[in-house]
């Protein structure tokens, strides 16, 4: 058996003996790795552990802007922020391992159709970005290094959009490419590179793709289109694939299993299908020839991997699935990457995740994550639970097995799978905070809100007792307003019904405003 490590552009082959062979074979293989990758030694398997990696921090979160848009992440050296609105104020802070006070990194402004790049320390640093308007943030080392892949997301966290700001890393191996995927007929648009003035125009139908191989490397890119498209900066594995509604859990996916590393003898790319429903009938096709590459049934909490190189892919399913391209089944360890995991809602911030991971090898594999509310309890099935006292205080799953983990939380979190701490990059999800601080406004003399049932499976009834001007609104887990149930004057009781039958399972928020007072309630849709 052989395992391969993508390490600073060097293919380090680890030739491991079978269980029946002597320890001398394994010892020799370990020394071979040490010669190829100095100071990196294979580690003995250990039991998975789940811990809170930081305690303390900001005990009282103080809102910075009229509405805050927050993300937490780790980075291997780069933080790239993309502006979708002029005069977007941004505050970036760091929290090194073992410290309890956020340290200021940068405060500034990013305008529409612009970006700002920060070079930051990597390793055991956690980062927090707070914006006055919605923005995009790319973390890892997309500018300082190469060999990774990621899909752009817009300011609403959607992987399909009519406008996407992103970055295409440099090319080092040859097969790297920038790709646009269309999900509707009659899709037209352009790839614009502000630094050079280059414009590439595309006209696509459903399932077709447009490729740039010469004009986008090491460049900031603006993609615009008349219908939503996906934009893939391809340089290796390490990303989830968006679906037809722009989220990352759904029924139809188009992507590319690339060829970076194939000439160097690296393992094939892994197309991983993770099911959030029982009995999901899945078909993987070559999107250019329509040939079926694999078909089968996957149940909830299961995954299937299709390995390959240089194949244009279409994935169809009868049940809710997520699709990732990340190292998993073709080798249990020794592949540098960073992947933002996707929850059941498809947004990347939620309470129920299935997360793939490698195991420790000549370096460490981890799943790390961050809560967005205080006193959040995170459970990794089969490993344990941990309570995080302050929003932003992270958790870490160390010594993981090469498997699919189920991660649940009682409040919204985001989490990442990664190996080695280099050669990985991905966009991060945004969390929205309520601009009305309920402790700053007096509770009206006549005010009460009840929701029955909650949790709900389809319908729920909302009763509001108040007088004067009121509004009743529904928000998704990342703060996007999705419905307004009522706005106007009331002199008594409102009885409203929310039909969630067309919504994805997950966390939602009900916000009721009465005058200057605002109250939020968490809704759980099963």
Beta-strand content estimate: over 45%
Gross morphology is globular
Separation, N- and C-terminal Cα atoms = 43 Å
Low-pLDDT runs:
1-43, 435-441
What is the radius of gyration? 23 Å
Largest sheet: 8 strands, antiparallel
Structural domain count = 5
Q: What's the helical proportion of residues?
A: under 10%
Mean pLDDT level: 86
DSSP helical segment count: 1
Strand segment tally: 40
Helix/strand class: mainly beta
Write the layout of secondary structure elements.
Elements: E1 2-7, E2 10-15, H1 23-36, E3 49-52, E4 69-74, E5 78-83, E6 88-96, E7 103-110, E8 114-119, E9 125-131, E10 135-140, E11 150-151, E12 161-168, E13 177-182, E14 187-193, E15 198-204, E16 209-212, E17 219-234, E18 239-240, E19 250-257, E20 269-275, E21 280-286, E22 292-298, E23 303-308, E24 311-325, E25 337-340, E26 350-357, E27 365-371, E28 376-380, E29 384-388, E30 395-398, E31 403-419, E32 425-427, E33 431-432, E34 448-452, E35 459-465, E36 468-476, E37 481-490, E38 493-499, E39 506-514, E40 517-525
Antiparallel strand pairs: 1-2, 3-30, 4-9, 4-33, 5-8, 5-10, 6-7, 6-9, 10-32, 11-17, 12-17, 13-16, 13-17, 14-15, 14-17, 18-24, 19-24, 20-23, 20-24, 21-22, 21-24, 25-31, 26-31, 27-30, 27-31, 28-29, 28-31, 34-35, 35-38, 36-37, 36-39, 39-40
